[in-house]
Amino acid sequence: MVVERVQALSIAGLKELPAQFIRPDHERPENSKAVEGVSVQVVSLSQPRHSVVNEIAAAAAEWGFFLVTDHGIPPSLIRRLQEVGRVFFELPQEEKETYANDPSCGRLEGYGTKMTKNHEEKVEWIDYFYHVMSPPSKVNHQYWPKIPTTYREVTEEYNKEVLRVTDKVLEVLSEGLGLEGKALKRSLGGEEMELEMKINMYPPCPQPQLALGVEPHTDMSALTILVPNDVPGLQLWKDNHWVAADYLRNALFIHIGDQIEVLSNGKYKSVLHRSLVNKDSTRMSWAVFCVPPNEAIIGPLSELVDEKNPPKFSTKTYAEYRYRKLNKLPQ
Ligand SMILES: O=C(O)CCC(=O)C(=O)O
C-alpha cells in the first residue's frame, strides 16, 4: 500500500493544506489559542528527596505533567539522540520507505504516518519512527534505522539513562501516594516494563493555523518522557484552557499516562495534550512511552481503595486496555 508521507508533501512545496489535514473549526489552533501567563512546573531532581516527592506529586495531581531538570542525562547524549533521528528523516524517501511499518497487519514498528479509519476523520501533520527499546527480550533490532550507523549505539545508551530516570520518577510518584518506592514499578511489570521510542517529525506546514501535529489525546502509557527540539508546539489542557509547554533546553517533559492514573485511582491525572505545527521550521520530538507488558493487570492499587475511596476505574490487562483505547471503546 502506498502511503502519502507528510514530509514528502511538505518538501513538494504545497501552498494550501489538503482537505484531510484541515481540522474542524473548534479544533483549529487559530480558534483555540493557548492562555497567556501560565507556565508548567519545573522540578529539579537534585533537591532533597522530600521536596522532589512533594513537587512531583503535586504536579502529577494538578497537571499530569511537569518538566524535570538535573536528571543526570548528559546534554551531549540528548544532542546525539536528536542528531541520529534528524539524520534518519533526512534520508531519501525511498530509503525511509524500506522501514515502513504496516499497522493493518499488526506490524507497528518502523517508519509510519497515521492513517484515517474513514474518510471523514482528519489526519495529523506528522510522520514518525516507532520501535521498542527495552527490555532486551522484546527488542527487534531489524526494525531500527541502520543509517546513521550510530543510531543503535546512541539509542541504547539513551535507553539506559531514560530507564534510570523512569525508575526514579516512579519511586517518587509511589512515595507521593504514601506507598513504598517500588510499588508502581512492580505493578507495571517490574523488569518486564517496556520502553518504546517514538520519534515524531512535524515538517513545515503551509497553513499551521488550520492543522494539528497530534490531536488532543492522553497517552495510554504509564509515563511518557519526551525531549523536543527547540521549535515550540506541545500544549496541555489545564482548567479549560490550552497551556503551552515552553521549550527548556535539556529538560525532560514528563507526561503522566492512563496507567498511572488508573493505579493511583485518579489521584494523578493523565494529561490531555496536543501538538501544533510550524510554517517554516521542522518540529521534532523524541517520546519514550513507558508501558506495562500486555499481560500485566492494571487497576486501582488496593492500598488506595477503601469505603471512602471506591475504585474509579475497572481492572483489566494492559492488552485489553490498549485494544479498547485504540478502538475507541469505553474502558
Ligand atoms: O510532539 C509532542 O510534543 C507530543 C507528541 C505526542 O503527544 C505523542 O507522540 O503522543
Task: Describe the fold and architecture.
- The longest helix is centred in the middle third of the chain and has 26 residues, at about 150-175.
- Helices cover about 25% and strands about 20% of the residues.
- The chain has helices spanning about 5-10, 50-60, 75-90, 95, 150-175, 185, 260-265, 320-325; strands at about 40-45, 65-70, 110-115, 125-135, 195-200, 215, 225-230, 235-240, 240-245, 250-255, 275, 285-290, 295-300, 315.
- It is built from eight helices and 14 strands.
- α2 (about 50-60) links the parallel β1 and β2.
- The chain has a single domain (about 5-295), classed as B-lactam Antibiotic, Isopenicillin N Synthase, Chain (Jelly Rolls), CATH 2.60.120.
- The protein starts with 5 loop residues before the first helix and ends in a 5-residue tail after the last helix.
- The chain is of the alpha+beta class and about 325 residues long.
- The strands form three sheets. Strands 1-2-10-7-12-5-4-3 form an eight-stranded mixed β-sheet. The chain has a four-stranded antiparallel β-sheet with strand order 6-11-8-9, with no helix packed on it.
- The structure holds 2-oxoglutaric acid.
- 2-oxoglutaric acid binds near residues 228, 234, 275 and 287.
- Pfam families: 2OG-FeII_Oxy, DIOX_N.
- Belongs to the iron/ascorbate-dependent oxidoreductase family.
- InterPro entries: DIOX_N (IPR026992), IPNS-like_FE2OG_OXY (IPR044861), IPNS-like_sf (IPR027443), Oxoglu/Fe-dep_dioxygenase_dom (IPR005123), Plant_2OG-oxidoreductases (IPR050295).
